[in-house]
Specification:
3-stranded antiparallel sheet; 7-stranded mixed sheet; 12 strands; DUF4232 domain-containing protein; mainly beta; about 40% strand; about 130 residues; Immunoglobulin-like; DUF4232; about 0% helix
Length: about 130
């Protein structure tokens, strides 16, 4: 399994970042529910609390070799509320659903703002 950050989508005061999981194995795997997500600084210390779950769960996703699924991170644009942004993250730590093995990717300066840091359940495809 590999992890990559998708394209950031910004609009109407919201920021969405897809986390894309791709099955690099030779057999089908299944993903169900929510990944665990935390923002990390350059020393791998957590920046604030982990992401909270947003929205309903979906049906289990069967990923054939080479198949992808995604979960979307959600926060607000800076200045949308009086709650300040967390400092910018260096990395995003992600635990795939039902896994105790973390994966890390570059945060590309992603930061949680407005007191909102949420993750949606897994869905088929790369866009959430």
């Amino acid at each position: 399994m590999t992890l990559a950050a998708g394209r950031v989508d910004v609009g109407a005061g919201n920021v969405y970042l897809p986390l894309v999981f791709t099955n690099k194995g030779s057999t089908t795997c299944t993903l169900t529910g929510y990944p665990g997500v935390s923002l990390l600084d350059s020393t791998d210390a957590a920046i604030g609390a982990p992401a909270t779950r947003r929205g309903p769960t979906h049906s289990p996703i069967s990923l054939p070799p080479g198949g992808s699924a995604s979960a979307v991170l959600h926060t607000l644009n800076e200045g949308m509320t009086d709650t300040p942004c967390r400092r910018a993250a260096a990395r995003i730590r992600v635990y795939p659903p039902d896994s105790f093995d973390a994966m890390k990717i570059s945060a590309r300066s992603f930061r949680a703002c407005g007191g909102v840091f949420e993750v949606e359940a897994m869905r088929s495809g790369t866009g959430g």
